[in-house]
């Protein structure tokens, strides 16, 4: 069911990206919560790897024309793959899909919030996705899972504030 792609074969394909995109686009078969979380974690790791490559090549970009070309390639690959890796089905339009009640996007969003992945700009994505999920129509199970995320955030804030005081 899952095909794992190598970035050497085609640098524009992400880990399992075509499969999850197809699942979210068609709605069949639905990805399980467990598999969505695995995908989100794998994609976050890939974004961190791509960003690290950009950072490493940027340090040497002024040393030679070849180094500059390598840095430009790394940056282009990062930009071309980021949207598809940042959120299952692509982050571009994800907030609108959540607001419109797309069940696959809502499930992916709740999994994203539960995983709390760490990668470039994920800290900005998290509160936006959280707000959209809080306004979306959720099943009772999804609402309970979202409430657990909100409770976890509140607990973290309490713990953080008690350390400061």
Folded structure, characterized:
It is a single chain. The chain is built from 7 helices and no strands. It is mostly helical and 165 residues long. It has one domain (17-164). The protein is globular. Residues 1-18 have low confidence and may be disordered.
- Taking all Cα atoms into account, the compactness measure Rg is 18 Å
Annotation, overall tally of beta strands: 0
Q: What is the H/E order?
A: HHHHHHH
Overall residue-averaged pLDDT value: 86
Terminal residue distance: 52 Å
Please state roughly what percent of the residues sit in beta strands, choosing from under 5%, 5-15%, 15-25%, 25-35%, 35-45% or over 45%.
Answer: under 5%
Number of domains: 1
Largest sheet properties = none
